[in-house]
Amino acid sequence: MLKFVGTPQAFPGKRAPKLRAEDFREIADRYAPPAAEDQAGRCSQCGVPYCSVHCPLHNHIPDWLRLTAEGRLREAFELSNSTSTMPEICGRICPQDRLCEGNCVIEFSGHGAVTIGSVEKFITDTAWEEGWVEPLVVGAPRGQSVGIIGAGPAGLSAAEYLRGYGYDVHVYDRYDRAGGLLTYGIPGFKLEKHVVTRRVNRLKEGGIVFHDNFEVGRDASMTELRQRHDSVLIATGVYKPRAIKAPGVGSNGVVDALDFLTASNRKGFGDAVPAFDDGSLDAAGKHVVVIGGGDTAMDCVRTAVRQGAASVKCLYRRDRANMPGSQREVANAEEEGVEFVWLSAPEAFLSGDSVTGVKASRMRLGAPDASGRRAPEIDPEGGFDVPADLVIKALGFDAEDLPTMFGVPELGVTRWGTLLVGKTLMTSLDGVFAAGDIVRGASLVVWAIRDGRDVSTAMHQWLKAKATSARVAA
Predict the structure, then answer these.
(1) Could you give the C-alpha distances from 75 to 79, 126, 187, 318, in angstroms and in order?
(2) DSSP-assigned letter for residue 216
(3) d(Cα 319, Cα 316) in Å, to the nearest integer?
(4) What is the mean pLDDT of each run of 10 residues along the chain (474 residues)?
């Protein structure tokens, strides 16, 4: 297996040098897969396109692979772009091993999947470089406006489609930059930030108005936004970190994953980040323990490696086969020197002035839980201690209490706190729709893009009916 130069495994007995994201990209380029045309030509053009079936966007994958193989890159891009508002982003961060590539018939035959994600990234990056990405086409003005709360992938996707229908679109977001987790949650070595910025700039140039540093409930109430716009979309995502109930969890040095990742991304932008500069959210030289087994946990362990951590361990309560995150990400992390401690869970956090370690319980898999996965339970054989200077909690995210935050107690929620919607994706508030993770729970970016596409269609139908009713009443 390839060992990347500059990882802890490449420097036994001493800490790896601190590398920049571009260093890793340069190293990766040395071992690049075959040219996109050659890779696309491996597609068997099977009768049942399992890759497309298992893509949430149902992209026309075999068709644009064929066009790529024939060297018709502009046509390939246009076809890819016809079903996705962010193909180059999906090409970079989708867990293809669980979606399209994992269902490739060539993969089933044992010859390795067509690298669909890499081809998608290549043809779209080429389109940007060659100027093939057209400006946003704005529909005929309708005299109606839409307010979108949240500038993450669901909100951005919906904004593009709604602007294309001819609506005035305003996007409100609590952060100082649009993109949501694309900007602040996903590390730059997986998703370069200029890739997100150029998508946002295209929307701005198409007349979509962005209101940054805007919090509903602080800068305007939900009632005021509903009065300001003909319809409102809630696409906030889910940002409440899942808690760990264990002694010492409040110790200095025990931090939330999003705080850690946001600090790292802000440093990449050149922002002043006091909590990073004072070492609180910097892994350099530290023994890092990440708790969790999802994609966010993988982002944390790989970010810690790049910051120059002395060691990085990942504790997960199930085994590798039952891990929710991408197996490809796990393999990448192992190549970079991360140690996975399977079937382990925190029992307590050891500390003096700050955290010094994690007291962990050994786990075993028992009977299946409600989801069908085998439920972890404590193994009576005993536990063990793991030294740590920095512990990162990466157990996923839940919905925030939006009815309280937005001042609308009548906004319906599920028992998980996500928003209740009907078949039209409308909430309990008339004319207020919801999409993305705030409806389905923490999920994939590609599903958020799909939800943004779907909700824009539903909102368009509702707004047309509203305009018709207004004309009849007049």
Answers:
(1) 6, 12, 31, 45
(2) B
(3) 7
(4) 34 42 44 70 90 96 95 96 96 94 88 92 96 97 98 98 98 98 97 97 98 97 97 97 95 98 97 97 98 96 98 96 89 96 97 95 90 88 93 97 97 97 97 98 97 98 95 85
Determine whether 339 is exposed, middle or buried from the number of CB atoms within 10 Å of its CB (0-12, 13-18, 19+): middle
Identify whether the C-beta of residue 375 lies closer than 8 Å to the C-beta of residue 369: yes
Residue 325: CB atoms within 10 A of its CB come to 21
SS3 16: coil
> Secondary structure of the chain: what % helix, strand, coil (to 5)?
40, 20, 45
* Alpha carbons 236 and 234: distance in angstroms, whole number: 6
Q: What's residue 34's pLDDT?
A: 52
Cα(389)–Cα(287) distance, rounded to whole angstroms?
A: 5
Residues 420/402, Cβ–Cβ less than 8 Å: no
Q: In whole angstroms, how far apart are CA 99 and each of 51, 75, 94, 206? A: 7, 24, 8, 32
Q: What secondary structure does DSSP assign to 27-68, as a single string?
A: HHHHT--S-HHHHHTT----SS-HHHHTSTT---HHHHHHHH
Closest alpha carbon to 463 in 82, 136, 141: 141
**CB of 440 closer than 8 Å to CB of 447:** yes
- The H or E element that residue 366 is part of is strand 355-368
Q: Contacts for 364-372 with beta carbons within 8 Å, 24 or more apart?
A: 365/318, 365/319, 365/322
Cα-based distances in Å from 410 to 226, 236, 284, 427, 428: 14, 18, 47, 10, 7
Q: How far is CA 252 from CA 220, 352, 389, 390, in A?
A: 35, 9, 9, 9
Question: What's the gap between Cα 343 and its chain centre?
Answer: 26
